[in-house]
Amino acid sequence: MEHDLAAKDEVRIEWRPSGSLRVNAETSTVRKRRQVEIDLEETGKEFILDHLIGAYLSGAQNIRITSKSGIDREHRRELRKFIQTTRGIEISTESDYKIEMITLLNPGEMPLHSSINRMYLLVSTQIRDVVEVLSGGDLTILEDSEEREKEVDALRLLLERQVGQILESATIETSFGTTRWEAAELSNIVRTLERIGDHCYILSRLCINQDVPKTLSTAELPVSVITVWQSSIKQLIANLRKRKVKEIHDAKSNLELAIMNLREYEDSLWDLKLQSTDALFLDKLSESLRRILAYTVDMAEILINIHTHRNSIEVTIE
C-alpha cells in the first residue's frame, strides 16, 4: 500500500553497487526526493560549507538548514559561498531560523563528456593566456583567473554529483549513456582536471605578482614544454570518445619526456648566473608546469584503463 501497487503492476529492478537488487515501483504515484537536514547547533561554523557540499554530492534535491538560536550573518555568508561554488542551487524559503535550498538540476541535462570538455577549455585557455603574458602580453587578460578557477571547481562538484547518481540508479546510468565503471573513471579524470586548474591559477598569480624575467624565452625551457602539453591533452580529450589507443600512448610518452627535461632544467637552474628573484620565478614556473604534465600523464593512464575495459569481454568458465 505504501507504493500504491496492485496486482500485475509493473516494477523496475535495479542493480545496486553492493551487488544486491532493488525493486522500484515503476507505475507508483508516490514520488520521492532525497533530502538532507543540517542542524547548525550540531555543526560548527567552520564545517558548514563541508556539510553543504556533502549534501550536494549526495544528490540531495532539498537541503534544509535549521538553527534554534537563529541563522546569523556568518552562517548566511557560508550559504552564499556554497551557492556560488555549485551549479543549480537556489534558496526556496528563508526565515530567521530555517533556510531551504532546492536543486534545479536535471541529472541528464549536462552530459558528462560536455562538462569535461568545458573544464578542458577553461584550463587550456588559461594556459594560453599565461603564455601570452610570458611573451610580453597585457597582464589584464589574467584578471579573471580566479573566476575561471571557481568555474572549474563548480564543474568538478557537478560531475561528482552526477557520477554519484549514476552509481545509484540504472535509469540515470542509461540516460547518460555510460556504464557505472566508466563513470567512476571519468570522475578520476575530473579530479585530475581540477588539479591542473589549480596550477593554472598558480601560474596566473605568479605572472601577476612577480616580474617576468627578461631572459625568459617561450621557445626554451621551461615554457617550451607547454606546446607538448597542449598537443597531448588535446589528443587525450579527443580519446574520451575515440578508441585510438596509440594516440594515448604517444601523448603519455611525450609528456613523460617533457617531465624529465624539466627535472634536468630545475637541477641546473641554480648553476646559472641569475638574480635570485629571476631564479625563484623560473623554479616556481617549472614546478607548476611539471605538475601539470604529471597530472596529464595520470589522465592518459585513466584513459588506457577505460580503453582496456571497453575492449574486455566476459568468457564462460568451464
Automatic annotation (TrEMBL):
Protein name in UniProt: Phosphate uptake regulator
Pfam families recorded: PhoU
Domain PhoU: 116-201
PANTHER family for this protein: PHOSPHATE-SPECIFIC TRANSPORT SYSTEM ACCESSORY PROTEIN PHOU, PHOU DOMAIN-CONTAINING PROTEIN
GO biological process: intracellular phosphate ion homeostasis; negative regulation of phosphate metabolic process
Species name: uncultured marine group II/III euryarchaeote AD1000_44_A01
